[in-house]
Give the backbone structure.
Amino acid sequence: MPTPSIGVNDGLRRVFFFLVAGGTGFALYLVISYTLHYFFHVGEVISVVAGTLLPILPTFWMQRELTFRSNESHSRSFPRYFALQVCNAGFIAMLTALGKFVGLPAVIVFPLCGLIGAVISYYVQARLIFFAN
């Protein structure tokens, strides 16, 4: 069920809810990535891939219902969202490997790569995934 507008410009509402939904997804990404890497000693690349892919269901729901208020069917939008997140995980993994190669610590690489991925993700979601509203 779409969230009713609060009487503000739709673009501002969308940015606000993207920050809420994306911020939640980003927080989950960081918690998962840091936990796997620092507590379970999993490598950086595997940690960021898991951190990107594990929160797919809650972030899909928040982006679809809150940010984009899309009426696109789940059966059409979820596979596209899933594919985006798989590509995003690969991209973030490559950036993380590059950061590790140049000697940056994971505490810096994880949020930096996640933020780059989040910005790209917003534009792809707006144009290719949740465009039917």
